[in-house]
């Protein structure tokens, strides 16, 4: 990937869903946070002021929402992979993505902000 590539960031996308290994996690929706770093060349979009040459935020948000809320996975790793693949497949200009999925209410006894998985995938 070119070092001069630009980045769009979407942080704190919040969803309620049932992901996890435990039966209780599969039955009761929990909070999940998704952070995205979308890597692409933004020069043409900026110069032409044209949404078609960049990433439509609304489309990206609803793509992620559909994946998080409509399916159930055991692992955050699987959820992050599904999101990354869908984004890369849906947006032609996208060169790479970083996806972080955080679970603030993970079933762990102790004090913590969240547990998270972060992956990077390229075309």
From TrEMBL:
Pathway as given in its UniProt record: Cofactor biosynthesis; tetrahydrofolate biosynthesis; 2-amino-4-hydroxy-6-hydroxymethyl-7,8-dihydropteridine diphosphate from 7,8-dihydroneopterin triphosphate: step 3/4
Enzyme Commission number(s): 4.1.2.25
InterPro entries for the chain: Dihydroneopterin_aldolase, FolB_dom, GTP-CH-I_C/QueF
A GO biological process held by the record: tetrahydrofolate biosynthetic process
Lineage: Bacteria, Bacillati, Bacillota, Clostridia, Eubacteriales
Domain Dihydroneopterin aldolase/epimerase: 8-121
Listed name of the protein: 7,8-dihydroneopterin aldolase
Keywords: Folate biosynthesis, Lyase
Stored NCBIfam families: folB, folB_dom
SUPFAM superfamilies: Tetrahydrobiopterin biosynthesis enzymes-like
Tagged with keyword Transmembrane: no
Signal sequence interval, chain numbering: none
Similarity field: Belongs to the DHNA family.
GO cellular component term, pick one: cytoplasm
Molecular-function GO terms, alphabetical: dihydroneopterin aldolase activity
Enzyme class: lyase
Function: Catalyzes the conversion of 7,8-dihydroneopterin to 6-hydroxymethyl-7,8-dihydropterin.
Catalyses which reaction(s): 7,8-dihydroneopterin = 6-hydroxymethyl-7,8-dihydropterin + glycolaldehyde
């Amino acid at each position: 990937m070119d070092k001069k590539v630009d980045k769009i960031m979407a942080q704190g996308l919040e969803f309620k869903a049932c992901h996890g290994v435990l039966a209780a996690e599969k039955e009761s929706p929990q909070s999940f946070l998704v952070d995205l770093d979308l890597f692409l060349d933004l020069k043409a979009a900026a110069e032409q002021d044209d949404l078609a040459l960049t990433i439509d935020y609304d489309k990206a948000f609803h793509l992620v929402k559909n994946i998080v809320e409509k399916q159930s996975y055991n692992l955050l790793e699987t959820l992050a992979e599904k999101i990354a693949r869908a984004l890369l497949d849906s947006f032609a200009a996208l060169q790479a993505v970083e996806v972080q999925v955080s679970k603030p209410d993970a079933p762990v006894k102790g004090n913590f902000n969240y547990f998270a998985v972060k992956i990077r995938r390229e075309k």
